[in-house]
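ARCHIVE CARD
Drawer: 12
Card no.: 0347
Subject: one protein chain, sequence and derived structure
Cross-reference: see card 0346
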Amino acid sequence: MKKMLVLTGLVLIACFVITPFDKTHAEELLGTGTNSLLGGDLTDPENDGAADADEGYNAKFSSNNEPGFGGGEFSFNVFDNILGGGNAKWCCGPGGGIPDEGLHITAEFDMAYVLTHFTVSSANDVPARDPTEWEIQGSNDGEDFTTIYARDGDTIWTERLQVARFDAGEDFDVQKTGYKFFRFVTFNTASNPNGAYFQVGEVEYFGVDSTTDVDPKAKLTTTWGSIKNAR
């Protein structure tokens, strides 16, 4: 009987050791495609931005890789309010691999906002191009950036054109500082630096001006316009 109990215990221990740890992430996967975007974010609260003309936006955009809308899948396409292939995404990285400073795109606003939540979406193909090490950063001078959210080592998205939402108080610290600049920066992907190794579909920022009390759980926290899909 004692031998049987010992063997049973060893089997249980072996099963516990072999079974992989199921790491659960707090971010919320909202669905796939353009209709799963929240819409009405700080860069285009009225959802009336004309991407090809770079008009109708409430932010100025800059990037260290392929700045501009359209073109050869240029970087500003992450703010065009569309999820899809071709010029609806940012792809695919400069020769030689991702530089030490990362591939980054910045949205500059006329006033400081306290970030309450944001979304980042996968593109239409090649999962190995998805960012695996990336950050959301804030700044008030466009030069010195503070990390708000950092991700490293695993993939968020389980499908193509999938929207992932991140909330203050759950996925990153509740913010007490407002920023005029928000930057999305990628440091690595699974396929970096081989071939076309990087892509992202869309980025949305939501927040309140820095003089407003912040409710990190609020679904409608943009101080301009209205959210397309109230959730």
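Annotation on reverse: Residues 14 and 140 are 53 Å apart (CA to CA). The chain has one helix and ten strands.
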